[in-house]
Amino acid sequence: MSIPLHYYLGLSAVLFAIGVAGVLTRRNAIVVFMCIELMLNSVNLTLIAFASFMGDISGHVLVFFVMAVAAAEATVGLAIVIALFRNRQTVNIDEINILKW
Amino acid sequence: MAEQILQDLQLFYPELALTATFLVAILADLIFRRTSVVVSGIVMIGFVVTAVLVLGQSDLHASIFSNMIAVDPFAHFFKLVIIISAILIVVFSLGSAELNSPNRKLGEYYALLAALTLGMMLMAGASNLLMMYLAIELSSISSYILSGYTKEAPDSSEASLKYVIYGALSSGLMLYGISIIYGLTGSLDIYTINQVLAEGDISGVALLIAGVLTLAGFGYKISAVPFHFWTPDVYEGAPITITAFLSVASKAGGFALMIRFFKVTFIDSSVVTLPEGAWATFEGFEWYHIIAAMSVLTMTLGNLVAIWQNNLKRLLAYSSIAHAGYMLMGVVVLNNQGLAAILIYFVVYLFMNLGAFYVVMLVANKTGSEDIEDYKGLGARAPFITVALAVFFISLTGLPPTAGFIGKLYLFAALLNSGWVWLAVVGALNSVISLYYYVRVFRNMYLRPADQPGPPLVFGKLQTAIVLVLLIPTILLGLYFTPLVQLAQASVKIFGTP
Amino acid sequence: MGVTILGIGVLTWITFLPVLGMVLVLLLPKERRDAIRWMALFFTGLQVVLAIIIFTKFDHGMAGINTEAGMQFVEKVPWIDVKSVAWFGRIHIEYLLGIDGLSVVMVLLTALISFVAVISSWTIDKAVKGYFALFLLLDTGMMGVFVALDFFLFYMFWEVVLLPMYFLIGVWGGPRREYAAIKFFLYTLFGSVLMLLAMIALYFSVTVYIDPAGVIHSVADATKMGMQGLEKIYTFNMMAMMDPGNYVPDSLLAGTNTSWRYIAYIALFVGFAIKVPLVPFHTWLPDAHVEAPTAISVILAGVLLKMGAYGMLRISFPMFPDAMIHYSWHLALLGVISMVYGALVAMAQTDFKKLIAYSSVSHMGVVVLGMASMNTPGMTGAVFQMFNHGIITAMLFLIVGVIYDRTHTRGLNEFGGLMNQMPKYAAVMTVAFFAALGLPGLSGFISEAFSLLGAFQTFRTLTIISVITIVLTAGYMLWVLQRVFLGSLPEKWKGLTDINGREMAMLAPLAAIVIFLGIYPSPVLDLMNSSMNFLAELLQHAGSATLMGLQ
To answer: How confident is the model at residue B20, as a pLDDT?
Structure first.
């Protein structure tokens, strides 16, 4: 007995939605980055589910790349947060507002 | 297999040269820690070599690494645009006061510039969803760092942070779209996806959602509304050289990727009744309506918001959003004429937009300000470069006898020739709106005296020469555009399409 | 036939001489103001000499309008030539200049007015170099509009005019110059982008055939020749666009009286009407005229407004005769509204310059009414009125300039009793004002009479209504004379000097022309007679063809 495909898809869709909602509503830059990771992981889940369901390898390959890129992106993102924190003593996105319209 | 890869590598020389440039630049930066002259020299040489290698690829029509990357005239054209602007950006960077402050090490800057260029060149040829994602991310991550490079300036790191967040969000959306497309069609290769779609038992709605999600990734790269939010902030906060580079090359890469993706994936090759050079989309995938709406929104919003800007970099950011909107009009018409119009526009845009940014940079070097108010009375203090800026702006507005007019002419011609009259009218009215904010700069430069009269601004011979290098094509291509049209017509061929 | 100098045609010379002058002006150091002024005067003077050569060599018998063979001084060089690719035909654009009876009048006017405007610019003291460089560029744009016979080239010249004009008003203008300049720029650009779209639509609707030697043949000729070795191309050639036989069946603008043809006609019309300007597109004009320096007001009223009316006669009429006939009543109505409205508003003005600006609106209404009649007297009168209005309004603005230079005010009510103080000034001004109000014996009378006569044959009621304007015009013009010259001289103007030699040099020739053409108009009328006859026939022919098509 195996878990049907749409269970995986449903779970990853929910995770993705939570991630997007988090990016749009959370004000702490660190939490925003965590939400982005959540989005990427839900994508990974979808890809793995499809790949194993279809017995196709390219989905797995893409997942590896996504993981690597996500790590790089998080590294750069956090480095920028630190640079900004040194300037501004805050990681709250609402207070990062010199640039407007 | 191995033989095939070795053979394919020969078509990959430009990208290999860029990779080598990047690696050597990093190593050189470790060795020569005191000065960035060596690294900038290495990167410059690397770019020139790449440009020569790209030029040698003019007539190829192939796909390499198991259909990962296409090497065709279309990619060749965008690679040329990208590498030429990369070379110009290195030259700009050497003369930028903002970057060359005493305590800053610029070695990494130049190395990352090579990585960014590599990412954009890969975008020009990517023909597999995996490759597209990687190319976008390579260029994005490099540009996140570069836009925050002047990290002691608070607005620079703020721009960088916003860029990362918007970038990560849209690449997340795009990946989700890709994963759905993969699930529906069982492949990441766009040619295979096209075949699967041709068989016709794919749910239209699911694929439409996936397509729109993927569009988020492209839209973010070309800064089309509603994925444009990062653009003004990043353009204002980033060093001006990076802003100029992003506004031209990043857009070029994004457009190449988007056009290739939509054209190859959704083209219905079974329809043969069309006029030569036109193509049809599968029934139920009329995504060009979405792009038409996006185009109208992009240019109108870009132009209307630009009117209210007081910072020239930010004004140019909104103007570049508007220009993305104009170029999107060429995608809507679904024929080679529209594509050729986009390509013509890109060449023109390369010169006029880089020219405008360069003059703004030169002025900021001397006066330390990018505020439009500080341009008052500049016409008398620096006659030559303000005239040059005026010509670039006239060209951006699209008035003859400048190259910008030719770009607009071909876009409108493509639209009218395929019956999109309303879109052409919207585009034309938008160029009237755009005149208003460009003229605000003229007004301050020439019509209003300075609040405090300053000394004349004197620029070096090299700087004048660079302005001329950008100015002469801007005027000349407006008066004699035969080569431009020939280049564009030869470059519309995309691998895997009729 | 043609006149060439150093192997280059005279029309190229007359168009691009000012650009040459501009380059030389830019090379002069900016301290040498007088050298710059003389340079500009020299080049516009050469233009006048060339204009006189053209005038003497012009063949009165050739009609032109819709045939290249009927054009004179034709110059034709391939400009853009891109070979055809599988999915897109060959692109062939020509550098094509030529004049006929319609444009020769405008060429003469442009040369003359530019020359006079340079003399009047002598008092400009601010950034002399920039002023004359832009002025000469403007001159090239204006001249180019009148000699171009390729729509693409025409459009280029049309747009080249805008930018120098913006700066000339914006930098050297009066207190509200920024507002006036941007308003002018936005209005005219709005009109010209519509024109651009109409131009592209025409381009894709008209095909001709090109032979290996690069000669263009119309579809009818090509059919006669058996299509041997001919290649089909789209074209911007204006004459090809006037031949209904060249329209591709099923293209956007093919056929007659289709809604797309009406839309294209209206797009062109708005572009031209803004330049003319017709009420309700006129609001840029009073601002621009009032704020511009004297010489630029002269150019605006003398030449720029004519570009709009010329564009209608050159492009809208022969290319869209069906739409033209369909809308002729509306066009005449707009003309009459402009006449009456302009005159009424002029009457209420106390600012000397604004009054003349509105009188321009009124006088250009006469031009449009005359054109809309579509018969020979009406159109001849319209073109002659364009010429006369150019000369007379130029005089009027110069006259305002003279008094403004001395008193720094344009308030009509502040003057009085100047007759004895400035007798020569009073004489010139009287000639100009009487000519403007249409006194018999002066040139304005003849052209207005022709226009109204022509219009009366076609639109009785409208013409009768429009006659009110003659009374109104006489009213406000005479009232100005009274306010300025009669009554008692205010104390502060006791020291005013009469006009000097330079001012006389620019006003006297214009006054002489006004008087001469009032008595003996044939030299100018003869130039355009055959062209106007031909155009009227063309329209009549198209009209009867349309009627037959309807039955």
So the answer is: 96
- Whole-number pLDDT of residue C343: 92
Q: What are phi and psi of B420, to 5 degrees?
A: -90, 60
Whether C427 contacts chain B with CB within 8 A: no
Tell me the nearest-neighbour CA distance from A22 into chain B, angstroms: 11
CA-based nearest residue to B388, from B405, B407, B363: B363
First-to-final CA distance of chain A = 56
Q: How many domains in chain B?
A: 1
Residue B221 to residue B239: CA distance in whole angstroms: 18
Q: What is the overall mean pLDDT for chain B?
A: 91
CA C239 to chain centre: 20
- Which fold is adopted by the domain A5-95? Helix Hairpins (1.10.287)
CA neighbor of C342 nearest in space, from C401, C285, C396? C285
Sorted by sequence, the CB contacts under 8 Å of residue B337 that are 6+ apart come out as: B277, B413, B414, B417, B418, C87, C88
Rounded to an integer, what distance in angstroms lies between the CA atom of residue C188 and that of residue C158?
Answer: 10
**B220 within domain boundaries:** no
> Is B100 in contact with B106 (CB distance < 8 Å)?
yes
Compare CB distances from B447 to C87, C171, C196 and report the shortest one's residue: C171
CB contact under 8 A, B155 and A98: yes
| 8 A C-beta contact, residue C73 and residue C3 | yes
**Confidence at C83, pLDDT banded by 50, 70, 90:** confident
Q: What is d(CA C418, CA C485) in angstroms, rounded to the nearest whole number?
A: 5
pLDDT, tens only, B434-455: 999 999 998 899 888 888 878 8
Q: What angle do CA B307, B313, B315 make, to 5 degrees?
A: 10
Quick one: which H or E segment has residue C430?
helix C423-437
> Which pLDDT belongs to residue A99?
61
Mean pLDDT rounded to a whole number for chain C = 89
Summarize pLDDT for B264-290 with one digit per residue, the tens: 988 888 887 777 778 888 877 778 889
* All structural domains of chain A with their residue ranges: 5-95
CB C85 within 8 A of CB C69: no
**In angstroms, rounded to a whole number, what is the distance separating the alpha carbons of residues B108 and B22?**
10
Are B412 and C178 a contacting pair at CB < 8 A? no
pLDDT for res C182 = 92
Q: Which two tokens stand for residue B290?
A: 């979405």
Whole-angstrom Cα distance, residue B191 to residue B223?
27
Distance CA A1, CA A8 (A): 15
Q: Cβ–Cβ contacts within 10 Å for residue C462, how many?
A: 20
Q: Which residues of B touch A49 (CB under 8 A)?
A: 183
The closest of C484, C506, C314 to C409, measured between CA atoms, is C484
Chain A positions touching B161 (Cβ under 8 A) are: 29, 77, 80-81, 84, 96
Q: Running DSSP on this structure, what letter comes out for residue C228?
A: T
C380-393 average pLDDT score? 93
| Cβ–Cβ contact A48 with B under 8 A | no
The per-residue DSSP string of C383-413 comes to: HHHHHHHHHHHHHHHHHHHHHHHHHS--BGG
In this prediction the ipTM stands at 0.94
Whether B and C touch (3+ CB pairs < 8 Å), yes or no: yes
Task: Give the span between the Cα atoms of C6 and C159, in whole angstroms.
Answer: 29
Query: Among candidates C369, C195, C404, which has minimal Cα distance to C289?
Result: C404
Q: Is residue B296 domain-resident?
A: yes
Does residue B402 form part of some domain? yes
Is A71 touching B (CB cutoff 8 A)?
no
Answer yes or no: is pLDDT of C78 > 80.
Answer: yes
| Token digits of residue C463 | 């013409």
What is the chain B residue with the closest CA to C199?
A: B413
| Model confidence pTM above 0.90 | yes
User: Which pLDDT tens digit goes with each residue over A11-48?
Assistant: 999 999 999 999 988 888 899 999 999 999 999 999 99
Q: Does C1 have pLDDT greater than 80?
A: no
